[in-house]
Amino acid sequence: MDPDYKLHHCQNLMRWSLKKEDKYEEEIKVLTDKLKEAETRAEFAERTVAKLEKSIDDLEEKLSSAKEENLNMHQVLDQTLQELNSL
Hints:
Belongs to the tropomyosin family. The chain is mainly α and 87 residues long. The chain has one helix and no strands. It has one domain (1-62).
């Protein structure tokens, strides 16, 4: 083979390799940015879930208290009704 041809061929391969390398570096950068965004969204979602779970716990506690208060009120009303009926 002609040495000039080999040199030209090698130079073409080098240019092609450098373009590919640049392309892969850009793709890595894009994917890294996407990963960071996804991690940020995941962290936000985890904090939101924790807040919602706390809200659920608080609401369940309030519901339990309200049910207990309602039961007590029913007992008082039943007792009052019995007293009124016995008059």
